[in-house]
Amino acid sequence: MKRLLTLTALLLLALAGIAQPKPNKKDLAAQQEVETLERQRFEAQVKKDYAFLEKVFADDLVYTHSNGKQNGKPDYIQSIRDGKSQYDKIDVEALNVRAYNDGKAAVVNGTITITLPNKPDGTANVAHLKYVVVQVKDKQKGWQVVLWQSQKQAS
Protein backbone atom coordinates (compact mmCIF):
# COMPACT_ATOMS: atom_id res chain seq x y z
CA MET A 1 0.00 0.00 0.00
CA LYS A 2 2.83 2.38 0.90
CA ARG A 3 4.51 1.63 -2.43
CA LEU A 4 1.29 2.39 -4.31
CA LEU A 5 0.94 5.71 -2.49
CA THR A 6 4.55 6.62 -3.24
CA LEU A 7 4.20 5.73 -6.92
CA THR A 8 0.93 7.68 -7.09
CA ALA A 9 2.70 10.68 -5.55
CA LEU A 10 5.46 10.35 -8.15
CA LEU A 11 2.92 10.27 -10.96
CA LEU A 12 1.15 13.34 -9.59
CA LEU A 13 4.46 15.18 -9.33
CA ALA A 14 5.27 14.27 -12.92
CA LEU A 15 1.87 15.48 -14.08
CA ALA A 16 2.30 18.69 -12.09
CA GLY A 17 5.55 19.22 -13.99
CA ILE A 18 3.70 19.12 -17.29
CA ALA A 19 1.42 21.95 -16.16
CA GLN A 20 4.21 24.02 -14.59
CA PRO A 21 5.63 26.35 -17.25
CA LYS A 22 8.62 27.80 -15.36
CA PRO A 23 10.06 27.13 -11.94
CA ASN A 24 9.69 29.97 -9.44
CA LYS A 25 12.52 31.25 -7.20
CA LYS A 26 11.76 28.75 -4.43
CA ASP A 27 11.75 25.87 -6.91
CA LEU A 28 15.04 27.04 -8.44
CA ALA A 29 16.66 27.27 -5.01
CA ALA A 30 15.32 23.82 -4.16
CA GLN A 31 16.76 22.38 -7.37
CA GLN A 32 20.23 23.57 -6.37
CA GLU A 33 19.86 22.27 -2.80
CA VAL A 34 18.68 18.85 -3.96
CA GLU A 35 21.43 18.52 -6.57
CA THR A 36 24.05 19.23 -3.90
CA LEU A 37 22.39 16.77 -1.51
CA GLU A 38 22.25 14.06 -4.17
CA ARG A 39 25.99 14.30 -4.69
CA GLN A 40 26.61 14.34 -0.93
CA ARG A 41 24.38 11.30 -0.49
CA PHE A 42 26.31 9.29 -3.07
CA GLU A 43 29.54 10.27 -1.30
CA ALA A 44 28.03 9.23 2.05
CA GLN A 45 27.10 5.83 0.62
CA VAL A 46 30.71 5.28 -0.48
CA LYS A 47 32.18 6.55 2.80
CA LYS A 48 29.60 4.71 4.92
CA ASP A 49 28.54 7.92 6.63
CA TYR A 50 25.60 6.40 8.48
CA ALA A 51 24.70 9.61 10.36
CA PHE A 52 24.25 11.46 7.06
CA LEU A 53 22.27 8.59 5.53
CA GLU A 54 20.00 8.38 8.58
CA LYS A 55 19.27 12.08 8.15
CA VAL A 56 18.60 12.16 4.39
CA PHE A 57 16.58 8.96 4.08
CA ALA A 58 12.96 9.33 5.19
CA ASP A 59 11.62 6.83 7.69
CA ASP A 60 9.16 5.57 5.03
CA LEU A 61 11.85 5.24 2.32
CA VAL A 62 11.17 2.80 -0.52
CA TYR A 63 14.56 1.87 -2.03
CA THR A 64 14.32 -0.32 -5.12
CA HIS A 65 17.63 -1.67 -6.41
CA SER A 66 18.31 -2.31 -10.10
CA ASN A 67 17.77 -6.04 -9.50
CA GLY A 68 14.25 -5.39 -8.19
CA LYS A 69 15.09 -6.02 -4.53
CA GLN A 70 13.35 -3.50 -2.31
CA ASN A 71 14.41 -2.13 1.09
CA GLY A 72 13.08 0.28 3.65
CA LYS A 73 15.39 2.71 5.43
CA PRO A 74 16.59 0.42 8.25
CA ASP A 75 17.17 -2.55 5.92
CA TYR A 76 19.04 -0.50 3.33
CA ILE A 77 21.35 1.19 5.82
CA GLN A 78 21.97 -2.18 7.48
CA SER A 79 22.83 -3.69 4.07
CA ILE A 80 25.64 -1.12 3.78
CA ARG A 81 26.84 -1.94 7.33
CA ASP A 82 26.78 -5.67 6.54
CA GLY A 83 28.63 -5.25 3.24
CA LYS A 84 25.69 -6.43 1.12
CA SER A 85 25.57 -2.99 -0.53
CA GLN A 86 29.16 -1.93 -1.19
CA TYR A 87 30.28 1.05 -3.20
CA ASP A 88 33.92 1.81 -3.96
CA LYS A 89 32.99 4.82 -6.08
CA ILE A 90 29.85 6.46 -7.48
CA ASP A 91 30.29 8.77 -10.48
CA VAL A 92 27.40 11.02 -11.45
CA GLU A 93 27.12 11.01 -15.24
CA ALA A 94 23.93 13.07 -15.55
CA LEU A 95 21.65 14.69 -13.00
CA ASN A 96 18.36 16.48 -13.59
CA VAL A 97 16.36 17.99 -10.72
CA ARG A 98 12.82 19.35 -11.01
CA ALA A 99 11.28 21.01 -7.96
CA TYR A 100 7.59 21.52 -7.29
CA ASN A 101 5.17 23.09 -4.84
CA ASP A 102 7.31 26.12 -3.97
CA GLY A 103 10.39 24.01 -3.31
CA LYS A 104 8.72 21.41 -1.10
CA ALA A 105 9.13 18.40 -3.40
CA ALA A 106 11.63 17.35 -6.04
CA VAL A 107 11.99 14.63 -8.63
CA VAL A 108 15.52 13.69 -9.67
CA ASN A 109 16.56 11.52 -12.56
CA GLY A 110 20.01 10.73 -13.77
CA THR A 111 22.64 8.21 -14.64
CA ILE A 112 25.47 6.99 -12.45
CA THR A 113 28.35 4.59 -12.71
CA ILE A 114 28.99 2.56 -9.58
CA THR A 115 32.34 0.89 -9.06
CA LEU A 116 31.82 -2.10 -6.79
CA PRO A 117 34.44 -4.36 -5.20
CA ASN A 118 36.13 -6.58 -7.77
CA LYS A 119 34.55 -9.89 -8.67
CA PRO A 120 36.08 -13.03 -7.10
CA ASP A 121 38.13 -13.63 -10.27
CA GLY A 122 39.64 -10.13 -9.94
CA THR A 123 37.79 -8.52 -12.83
CA ALA A 124 36.27 -5.08 -12.48
CA ASN A 125 32.70 -4.86 -11.23
CA VAL A 126 30.98 -1.77 -12.61
CA ALA A 127 27.28 -0.96 -12.84
CA HIS A 128 25.79 1.70 -15.10
CA LEU A 129 22.39 2.79 -13.75
CA LYS A 130 19.53 5.08 -14.64
CA TYR A 131 17.64 6.22 -11.58
CA VAL A 132 14.73 8.26 -10.27
CA VAL A 133 14.56 9.79 -6.79
CA VAL A 134 11.70 11.61 -5.09
CA GLN A 135 12.63 13.96 -2.26
CA VAL A 136 10.35 15.94 0.00
CA LYS A 137 11.25 18.82 2.28
CA ASP A 138 10.25 18.29 5.90
CA LYS A 139 10.05 21.43 8.06
CA GLN A 140 12.16 19.91 10.83
CA LYS A 141 14.31 17.37 8.98
CA GLY A 142 15.00 19.17 5.69
CA TRP A 143 15.22 17.29 2.40
CA GLN A 144 14.63 13.57 2.60
CA VAL A 145 14.67 10.79 0.02
CA VAL A 146 11.32 8.98 0.05
CA LEU A 147 11.78 6.94 -3.14
CA TRP A 148 14.74 5.51 -5.07
CA GLN A 149 14.24 3.40 -8.20
CA SER A 150 17.04 2.27 -10.49
CA GLN A 151 17.61 0.09 -13.50
CA LYS A 152 20.69 -1.14 -15.28
CA GLN A 153 21.55 0.67 -18.49
CA ALA A 154 21.99 -1.35 -21.62
CA SER A 155 25.66 -1.68 -22.53
UniProtKB/TrEMBL annotation:
<feature type="signal peptide">
    <location>
        <begin position="1"/>
        <end position="21"/>
    </location>
</feature>
<dbReference type="InterPro" id="IPR027843">
    <property type="entry name" value="DUF4440"/>
</dbReference>
<protein>
    <recommendedName>
        <fullName>DUF4440 domain-containing protein</fullName>
    </recommendedName>
</protein>
<keyword id="KW-0732">Signal</keyword>
<dbReference type="Pfam" id="PF14534">
    <property type="entry name" value="DUF4440"/>
</dbReference>
<feature type="domain" description="DUF4440">
    <location>
        <begin position="35"/>
        <end position="145"/>
    </location>
</feature>
<dbReference type="InterPro" id="IPR032710">
    <property type="entry name" value="NTF2-like_dom_sf"/>
</dbReference>
